[in-house]
Design goal:
The complex is a heterodimer of chains A (about 100) and B (about 425).
Chain A: E1 3-6, E2 11-14, E3 19-23, H1 37-45, E4 53-59, E5 67-73, E6 79-84, H2 95-99
Chain B: H1 6-13, E1 32-38, H2 42-55, E2 60-63, E3 79-80, H3 87-101, H4 103-107, E4 118-122, H5 125-140, E5 146-149, H6 150-156, E6 172-176, E7 180-181, H7 184-197, E8 201-203, E9 208-214, E10 217-223, E11 227-236, H8 242-249, E12 256-267, E13 275-278, E14 283-287, E15 292-299, H9 311-324, E16 333-343, E17 350-353, E18 359-363, H10 373-386, H11 400-403, H12 410-413
Parallel strand pairs in B: 1-2, 1-11, 2-8, 4-13, 11-18
Antiparallel strand pairs in B: 3-7, 4-6, 5-6, 9-10, 10-11, 12-15, 12-16, 13-14, 14-15, 17-18
Classes of the chains: A alpha+beta (about 100), B alpha/beta (about 425).
Chain lengths: ~100, ~425
Amino acid sequence: MFYIYCPYCGEHREEEEFHAKGQAHLARPEDPDACSDEEWGNFLYFRSNPRGLYHELWVHAIGCRKFFNIARDTQTYEILETYRIGESPNLSQSTEQLQS
Amino acid sequence: MQKYSGFGLLKHALTYHENWQRVWRNPKPKRKYDVIIVGGGGHGLATAYYLAKEHGITNVAVVEKGYLGGGNTARNTTIVRSNYLWDEAALLYEHAMKLWEGLSQDLNYNLMFSQRGVLNLGHTLQDMRDIQRRVNANRLNGIDSVALDTQGVQEIVPIMDCNANRRYPVLGASWQPRAGVARHDAVAWGFARAADAMGVDLIQQCEVTDIITEDGTAVGVDTKQHGVLRGDRIGCVVAGNSGVLAKMAGFELPVESHPLQALVSEPIRPILDTVVMSNHVHGYISQSDKGDLVIGAGIDGYNGYGQRGSYPTIEHTLQAIVEMFPIFSRVRMNRQWGGIVDTCPDACPIISDTPVENLFFNCGWGTGGFKATPGSGHVFASTLAKGKAHELAKPFSMFRFHNGALIDEHGAAGVAH
């Protein structure tokens, strides 16, 4: 059971209140019509899926209903930090260099 | 290979069962193979078996970081069925189903394959429409499938609560009589033994740390325990770890690894002689020959490699089971565990060539790979032997996520397996 700190509510709440929404820091292509099939497919479906440090989007679904990011170890399940959308994580490496 | 038979059992009883042949060798790896298969689970071992049997390629290594069949093969809920909606998926799973039907004899190994039927319940009007559509699609593909109403379900499973006043009333089900369950470990062991007898090297406790490529062509794998093993073709069948292996080769896959949990109850007397699954209330259940209720449900929503899941998911699972079977509300659960499943966006597998020449992936089976074990191995063996996709595997290329030809099986596969 995760005990997750919501950076908006400023409190730890139980996992049941949240939903994981997949990889964080995925930038939608500025001009989708200009994308090749490969670029668009990569954006929609292909993910880094690492074993270890992972940055993912969560939503506080039964709380403030806001989206935020979690940096988590996918092997130990340890939550390393949570931070708001638009902020940078302190441990800012990988998840493919935050899909820069 | 020593043939197993009832007579053999009697013969060995005379010597107190002390002279049984080892089930497989424990060979020292050679430096060079025709085909290297990474991953010694059911699918990998089946691939090795069919490579040797159908294609005469026996200079094959199966490289496994743990022990044979110790991953998802050991962790699934053993359900076998083929009632998928779309032609591509239905044909693939039905191919597997046909292989299952003669597999115990084929492998000379008792897989305890029991065609006890599978019910997929419907609880809403939309469920029932979807079921009717899927049943019709199945029949057009030559797959046995029947749509039942409430009474039909109640006749098959008298202990199910089919009261119309329930929160989620059972309005009917699809019923596949040829579906059933098989002994999961035996599947891995049977394939391993038969492959080993034909000369395949099963190399356990050997972790792949890198995929070696030269000019965009895979030429071998680097391992922690045995150094570099070279191979003309490399097949990765590593389920939850597919993303990690793909990264070694330098590309990404459209899969995400999630924990999927299952649990078994204490053994009880025979009470449930079929498999019951419900997408809507989100759970599935059968009873093993040992007597324990085998229960599973959905994945945990987050990515994970930890081979364990969260308690809320267990709670939801058991709520679903008790909703269908109030009679089980006081059965105690004995064990709970998790496996790591590699889920695809369209809930269909990837059996495919990759951006790296001579490197092939068989992954993305998500929550329902066990049922396909022989079929998956069979088509992947052909793909590896010929260097191009088997006819049934063609639609399952990883590049369908670029050209848009997805096979959306969330209806038949999404939750319940």
